[in-house]
Amino acid sequence: MRSIWKGAITFGLVNVPVKVYSATEDHDVALHQVHAEDGGRIRYQRRCEVCGEIVEFADIAKAFDDGEHTVMLTDEDVEALPAEKSREIDIVEFVPSEQVDPILFEKSYFLEPDSRSLKAYALLRRTLEETDRTAIVKFALRQKTRLGALRVRGDVLMLQSLLWDDEVRDASFPALDEKVSITDKELQMSESLVKSFESDFSPDKFIDDYQVQLRELIEARLEKGDSFDSAETFGEEEAEKGGEVLDLMEALRRSVEMNRSGSTAKTGPESKTSAKSKSAGAKKKASA
């Protein structure tokens, strides 16, 4: 695995340098849209609805539309916002693990200790285990402030980004307001059925049958010679370069490198970007 981000877990004066890795990956077979008649690749163009011209990415700006008015935002406008560029995973509180609703979980990341922070890393991991607590953190990724849950998975600290509270919808269904009568016998039979299916959960027992059969279908077609030449149907340039499709890890890597080079040019390699680090002045964070 390749780390996508480097930073430090901080709480109080404790600083635990870590490397961040994406904990999950997509196993789905990537399918393209093609012309059924000749297998030619179908592509979507970024065409301006005003002038009709095809627009390059470099000439695309962001805008907000409320239905009546459109407000255009330039890159300079966005960069001027107080976007979080800190490399700190700041612990704001420790909460009982059962209080974190799984519906809030978004993306998962593994945290690897820096070679000089192993003891502090192990101490934090052990503390979370012994107290059965989850650390609620704030961190920044791709110039976006995020809420996260820091917890233990095996021997590794895991960071899971969380949805903000207003991003979770309320579930209100009229049918649930109706009173339903359930007899003791019905409940007993239902519980018996549950017991007949009881087992310890083991994820490796389950496979994605659709993706397995899809791969088998593709391999069978290739063995029969039932395929097109990619260079002819997708174009020489796209076949060699792979188009403009970037996986999430590559996009994050490029974003991090751009941010790093930008901050280095402006503030120098030794500068701290977070307000917290600046206000600390000459104080040095102690390593546990």
Instruction: Report the CATH C-level class of the largest domain.
Output: Mainly Beta
Number of helices: 8
**Beta-strand content estimate:** 15-25%
What structural category do the secondary elements indicate? alpha+beta
Number of strands: 9
Q: How far apart are the first and last residues' alpha carbons, in Å?
A: 27 Å
Task: Profile the largest sheet.
Answer: 7 strands, mixed, barrel
Shape: extended
What value does the Rg take, in angstroms?
25 Å
The spatial strand order of the largest sheet comes to 1-2-6-9-8-7-5
| Number of spatially distinct domains | 2
Proportion in helices: 25-40%
Low-confidence stretches at least 5 residues in length (pLDDT < 50)?
237-248, 264-288
| CATH topology-level name of the largest domain | Ku70, Chain: A, Domain 2
Order of helices and strands: EEEEHEEHEEEHHHHHH
Give average pLDDT, whole number. 79
CATH architecture level-2 label of the largest domain: Beta Barrel
